């Protein structure tokens, strides 16, 4: 790859054909927590191809207050009202961002109502419920995308382009980490992420899936088996198995990924692929508020690549809306998300049994 | 830790009391391959407290030629002559740097002759032979140090000082890698590193032990159990199980280390400890020809620390010689080295059985 291509040739939106519309995709936000208010809604407001028209919340007052601050929101309804089909003429798609174990019923209702679905990752709290989600979507021939924002993140897409172009030779290892002090970020000991029933798991489930899924995306492959250990040490994590987790994924062709994740550690995130001829590293990688940076090494030469930072959520909503407007099938789909749930649950099983778990 | 201490307070040789001597430790180099000629002998020549006086080789002509180029070497003898005690008045200590599976007999003879021993890592090719080495040394009350040059490397010692001072809080994860294209570095398909009998293992044994041992040094702890996978794909590695290897070490207190090593990949090396409050990373870390660099992160602040590069082998020989001159017991000893051999062999067992192996 020449420097000109490196600088000019990258098209962060190689999927884009339509850049404006008079008929934007109208979203119902299901769940109106801080992520919806501070990340998703501003992203949709900035995007060209979509808008937020409906808020669905367990807390009517909160939803009304947020709606009052928005120029596009027409309805603020309750979860029950959503399931009753209220205001269903006012939105084309839903963004499901409730606690993990509550995703399925909203996806079911949306599919029954004929709405397209963007569902946050992990897609559900158990393998069974994730499988059921895939079935429901199939039964209704609905459109489901799992919201892996790394797959539309330019730093990661560039890294993948370098790998696909053979710049690092054949991949040998992936090394990934995501760690944060969750109780400093969200200072609430009763938050759902620490509730095993609602979350389905903590460090590995909530953030370990970033290195896991990004490894899959960069390698364009799925893991064959996993091994690892998880542990909860601090009593705040008594209800979940994994305050911390470390795991290894065996990919086809003897490519190994080693990953770490913690909800009670210094905030850091990276993903790296090391190959026979070089390596590519994105660090910071996964937090939307950190400027992403990319380093490529080949032989004795190393490049630090910096570039315009984009809003990861805007990129993701724009891509999903673009698919709906053009009739393209969006990726990653439910089957793709299900593979992660199976791998994550296999990490917990591997930790309990001490054995390698085949996928 | 204040910046003044960071800049002025580090004493890379906190062990040093004696800086010069009229009676340097005289070394017999056992094995006269490129490492001895290009790394060990120049380091000893530059050091203040030791000198090379004897060369022991399987190849008399090579040894004679190397001896002729040296100002201090008095004798070039064969392996058999060494075992017969020839020239034993001309050296005080031996540096054993033969293929792994040949270390034991030289250590045995040196111990019988009352010589101090600096033995390259891994100390031997099997657990049994490593155990026997520890016994032999005990039987003769000999002095044995295993040549882990990372433990006298200033970048690593600084990293340890930061960790010990609590700068990164409590350690949570260690992340380490060492990879190289061995057939480009040593373009000989018949080299001993690819011979399972002589080496006892390839990627994990030869270079995986760098992240393994440096993790132990930085944490001041030994692993309790291991899991992992190794594989040989390229036919050049048919005689060893591990062209590539990935493994996880569980340290006490649920501290997990994830490590990768390959003898057929892009050259790279790093070690990082991530804690509850920050992290410390040495990269490059393990190759003597790469300038080592240290990064410390605490909260939102990151420091890149650069400093004078030293000759790792000179540092190690000087430390060992200093111990002999002052009557201090050098570290790391044979028991310390044996822990690595057990852990490495457990990685191979874990890969074969798919199970976690207790240490």
TrEMBL record, chains A, B:
<dbReference type="InterPro" id="IPR049838">
    <property type="entry name" value="XacA-like"/>
</dbReference>
<dbReference type="InterPro" id="IPR008354">
    <property type="entry name" value="Glc-Fru_OxRdtase_bac"/>
</dbReference>
<keyword id="KW-0560">Oxidoreductase</keyword>
<dbReference type="Pfam" id="PF22725">
    <property type="entry name" value="GFO_IDH_MocA_C3"/>
</dbReference>
<dbReference type="InterPro" id="IPR000683">
    <property type="entry name" value="Gfo/Idh/MocA-like_OxRdtase_N"/>
</dbReference>
<feature type="domain" description="GFO/IDH/MocA-like oxidoreductase">
    <location>
        <begin position="156"/>
        <end position="280"/>
    </location>
</feature>
<dbReference type="GO" id="GO:0000166">
    <property type="term" value="F:nucleotide binding"/>
</dbReference>
<dbReference type="InterPro" id="IPR055170">
    <property type="entry name" value="GFO_IDH_MocA-like_dom"/>
</dbReference>
<dbReference type="InterPro" id="IPR036291">
    <property type="entry name" value="NAD(P)-bd_dom_sf"/>
</dbReference>
<feature type="domain" description="Gfo/Idh/MocA-like oxidoreductase N-terminal">
    <location>
        <begin position="25"/>
        <end position="148"/>
    </location>
</feature>
<dbReference type="Pfam" id="PF01408">
    <property type="entry name" value="GFO_IDH_MocA"/>
</dbReference>
<protein>
    <submittedName>
        <fullName>Xylose dehydrogenase (NAD/NADP)</fullName>
    </submittedName>
</protein>
<dbReference type="GO" id="GO:0016491">
    <property type="term" value="F:oxidoreductase activity"/>
</dbReference>
<dbReference type="InterPro" id="IPR050463">
    <property type="entry name" value="Gfo/Idh/MocA_oxidrdct_glycsds"/>
</dbReference>
